[in-house]
Amino acid sequence: MTQEVTDLLRKALALPPEARAALAGSLLESLDDTVDATAEEEWNEEIARRIQELDSGRVKPIPWAEARRQVSVILNGR
Description:
Blueprint: H1 3-13, H2 17-31, H3 37-56, H4 64-76
């Protein structure tokens, strides 16, 4: 990383969480040159399905710390 990029990253990391999330989303979107309409539609359907599962109570959300711990266990085999 160049010094300029390092400085920019340091400033970005000092932002409040909501601003960092918005910035990250904007940066990711800037990498998408084209939109795959089929993939976009399928993601929208998946999102709607997951919201329905939450709304119906069929799926219970867990705190981020617990989700992160579970992912770590899976990835690290612990």
